[in-house]
Design a protein that fits this description.
This protein is α/β, with parallel strands linked by helices. 37% of the residues lie in helices and 24% in strands. The structure holds iron/sulfur cluster. The site of iron/sulfur cluster (SF4) has 15 residues, from α3 and α8.
Length: 208
């Protein structure tokens, strides 16, 4: 389909790689995903970028940016704070990098768009928030409470606190290095572009 110039520009911007990975750099989102996704993304970045146009992702990007723009305009909190820490695995030093959506008054907020708001925080969102907590601690930022904020076109907005819990970051890095978390969570293959594109065997358990 061809688009008028403004929309073409908008789509191209969505597909543009916003930030190159540095060597031995892993993002928090890699640590809460199937390790095969990470390895396939490195090998086929042009396909990985296509996920930006999937309707739930596109919708999520726009709501996310809108929410953060409003908070920024109100002068409340720190938006998209990039934090990093080092982790040694198999005698190699990896840098874990994450962007915390909002820190306000020592409380951390992670925004999530979702079609139906669940009754409690989803496991991978808990893990993500607790990795962010760890990143904040390592960077001298004290976090009092952490929340996941769900925004849904059907259900509106709901905010859940996330209990502090340990997440084994070294183990997660190892799963990526050795490609052993295929998938990390049971539901992942059903929502994965790599399966749709035919990069994984039937059942989505292998591939690359
Ligand atoms: S289809 Fe499943 S196994 Fe394959 S990359 Fe996606 S989540 Fe991982």
């Amino acid at each position: 389909m061809s688009y008028p110039p403004l929309i073409e520009w908008f789509i191209n911007d969505l597909l543009r790689e916003k930030r190159e990975r540095r060597p031995y750099e892993l993002w928090v989102t890699d640590l809460i995903s199937c390790s095969n996704k990470y390895n396939l993304s490195l090998r086929y970045p042009e396909y990985a970028r296509l996920t930006a146009l999937k309707p739930p992702i596109l919708n999520g990007t726009l709501i996310h940016q809108g929410f953060e723009a409003i908070i920024k305009e109100m002068g409340l909190g720190i938006i998209e704070k990039e934090l990093s820490m080092n982790v040694n695995v198999d005698n190699v030093r990896y840098m874990i990098v994450g962007r915390v959506d909002i820190i306000y008054d020592n409380d951390l907020y992670e925004l999530k768009t979702i079609s139906i708001i669940p009754d409690s925080v989803l496991e991978h969102h808990k893990d993500q928030v607790n990795i962010y907590r760890k990143l904040c601690e390592e960077n001298g930022i004290e976090i009092r409470h952490a929340y996941v904020v769900y925004i849904s076109p059907r259900d509106g907005i709901k905010c859940y606190p996330v209990e502090k819990a340990d997440v084994d970051i070294s183990w997660r890095v190892k799963t990526i290095v050795h490609n052993t978390a295929i998938p990390m969570y049971d539901w992942e293959c059903g929502y994965c572009i790599w399966g749709e594109l035919g990069f994984c065997n039937e059942g989505g358990r292998k591939g690359g």
